[in-house]
Fold:
Amino acid sequence: MVIKAHIRDVPDFPQPGILFRDITPLLKSPDAFADVIDRFAERYADQEIGAIVGIEARGFLFAAPLALRLGKPFVPVRKEGKLPFRTIKVNYSLEYGQSAVEVHTDAINEGQRVLILDDLLATGGTLAATAKLIEKTGGVVAGVAVVIELADLKGRDVLEGYDVLSLVTY
Structure:
């Protein structure tokens, strides 16, 4: 299946000059959605992975079914203030300010190998902050996987040293 055929281009969203890559047509197609999960599962089934982290919010859409398929725990990483239990936090810079990602203090075990999953790799800021967060918990980043990579934004450079998989590159 051609994943790119199920990704819609939305010009000028969320602001003028931005070309948004919309995954909702992919989610609307059970076959395309299953194909994405199958591709991730094929890549990571034989690897030593102890948990799968999904980044709020669209990363949850792919990480949770992959975790279920591989029989691994799903760990949500969320924006600051969204998790109900004690958390560990990492701050990071955005073009327009600061943000933070958090995970529960008991979500990842010391030395546990973790796969980080999100829908999109653009500048890499959120994925890099999540990798630092995993390492701060004592976990080990086994890999970073995304459905879409926007290569011209050079987010892969920010993730140097990590094994990065993207299914579709623009």
Notes: Residues 48-169 form a domain with the Rossmann fold fold (CATH 3.40.50.2020).
